[in-house]
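We modelled the chain as a single entity of 128 amino acids. Its sequence is:
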Amino acid sequence: MDTPRLLITDDDRSLRQALSEAMSRCGLEIATAGDGAEAIRLFDAGDVHLVIADFHMPRASGLDVIRHVRSRNRITPCFLISAELTEAIRSEAERMSAYAIFDKPLRLSMLRESVIRSLSETYGWKAG
């Protein structure tokens, strides 16, 4: 694998930007979506190796995005992020085999480490 492509989905533009900057420093290609429907469209367009999706978004939730990814393949690591994680949301994400679930505010270093680990475990990719 050359450069993994990460899809960051959040309706908060400043958070999308911060995540994009942090992840691109790891050598990742970044695509962003401002809502769940756009994320689904970008995923279906191809070449997405990992998805980070916020739970609360317009047009489709983060769980809807993960559900869609899982209906297409079982390999792509999916991360759910939310400022309002409940046990029900966490359980549903785990049931759908989310690779990781993070509370907001995010600790970028922990998220970055988890993203790198998931890409290594899933695709054998090594951060450069």
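As a brief sanity check on the tokenised model: Strands lie at 5-9, 29-33, 50-54, 78-82, 100-103. The radius of gyration is 13 Å.
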